[in-house]
Please model this.
Amino acid sequence: MKRTVLYVLVLTSLMFSAAAARRADYRIIPLPKNIQSDTTQVFTLHDGMGIAYDSNDEEQARIAGFLASWVKQATGLSLSLTPSDSKAAIRLVAGDPKTKKKGRKGSFADTLTAQQQEAYTLRVTAQGITLQARRGIGLFRAAQSLRKALPAEKDQTVIDLPYTTIHDEPRFVYRGVLLDCARHFFTVDVIKQYLDMMALHGCNQFHWHLTEDQGWRFEVKALPRLALEGSIRQETVLGRNTGIYDGTPYGGYYTQDDCREIVRYAAERYINVIPEIDLPGHMQGALHVMPHLGCTGGPYPVRTYWGVSDEVLCAGNPLTLDFLKTVLGELCDVFPSKYIHLGGDECPKKRWKACPKCQAKIKELGLTDDGKHSPEDQLQTWVNRQVEQFLGEHGRDIIGWDEILAGGLTERSIVMSWRGTKGGIEAARQHHRVIMAPNVFGYIDHPQLKDDSNQLPSIGRYIVSCSKIYSFEPLIPEELSDEEQQYILGPQTSLWTEYVAFPQHLFFQLLPRLGAMSEVQWCRPDQKDFEDFKARLPRLTRLYDRIGIKYCRQVE
Ligand code: TNX
Model:
């Protein structure tokens, strides 16, 4: 008898705890700028409640739809979309997020900083949940924050949200993530998942690395063989250049329609797509199809192993520039991004030094060693300048890896610092805009755990743990004056894929390190505390579970 009573007690308490409403927690990743909460009072969100939005506003309608689907995915709660219902539990409101007053959408928008355009307020009161922002992008950020604040457990019917007022906006305007789709090819669907993860973490720039020695992956209609044949390597080396090959052809490329679909999908998630055509090095995929554009004339097989190739575009051949203009012209048609990445990294000068055409060009341009820049480095700068001018005519600016410093920077170029932060510091001192993408803090192709016994293969050494990423300060105040710091647009993390061939592995490398990077990108330094980040992480990783995405379960 006693036993039965005990059972009943245990059972009912279990039932009650299952039924008890779980609580929202606003200390999400990346941490909002300002959170004021009153945890003694809650608004209770029930299954079937509504999300109200302005039905004349397509953007709001889309965001409301996103929010409903996210809430369903994370919690199981079904919310209905109820245009213009002032009594709905959740309301999207266009207006100045700092005031409760409804403002005119888009007014004085041009005077807003990029950060202010993304700003939002999230309020929870007895009347419900209000997401308020001047722009759609701010409402989207607010909706993502609400999504992340909810407990990610399935089959919930009620959720308590403590009263709160959150004011939030990002620290940096540029919050980038690179994906190398050239060493390994990832489908449009996988890239969409990648973009979803970026959006979840508040990132806004997708740097899409599309061409490589090991494969050309962008369709150029005027040069159909480029993608058809330049995308296929005959086999792939196993492990870290072991000399043993898999004997299996490998390929894949993106049609222009695929690219447009990626651009559209990204734009709906407030992500700009920056395509990279890596030039004049890392071009063996193209040279395979167009051997006359190399200094030696080839043949050039699409490269089957990793590392830096000596085979680069011949800078002395006028056809090289014609080729680049054809490619970049079509690239501009497909990608609306203000910024186009021209690579510029790891371009050995061995061939140029021995090439009569390149040497003749050096002579024609009057390039001589000035003690700081070799003639060949200056020749690369000359190539960059031609590209910069061509893209300038299309209203675009160029971004290049920090090697573009070697021959002197062209006028408007933006430097992406990857060999540590040195190049970025130098460029900022020269008053050039900079993206900080240092390998030592952001190359997530490196292992994330010290003990590599359970890890999937990766490049290099254990130098990019979660805590290492988290410790990064992109403004480098010990090196840069306040004025020079203004040139730092923001940080980026990069996922190179020599050793990453499958989507699960991709997301394992990415997550949760992107969480750490997102706080570098979004938060002020005084908000950051790695132990606190780790304490907040389980709510995010539970959401990863609900989304069904793979991630590394250990964090160090
Ligand atoms: C350097 S980053 C590269 C890439 C490699 C990466 C591997 C850069 C501009 N070049 O081509 O994939 O290291 O970590």
In short: The domain at 176-547 is CATH 3.20.20.80 (TIM Barrel). The longest helix spans residues 375-393.
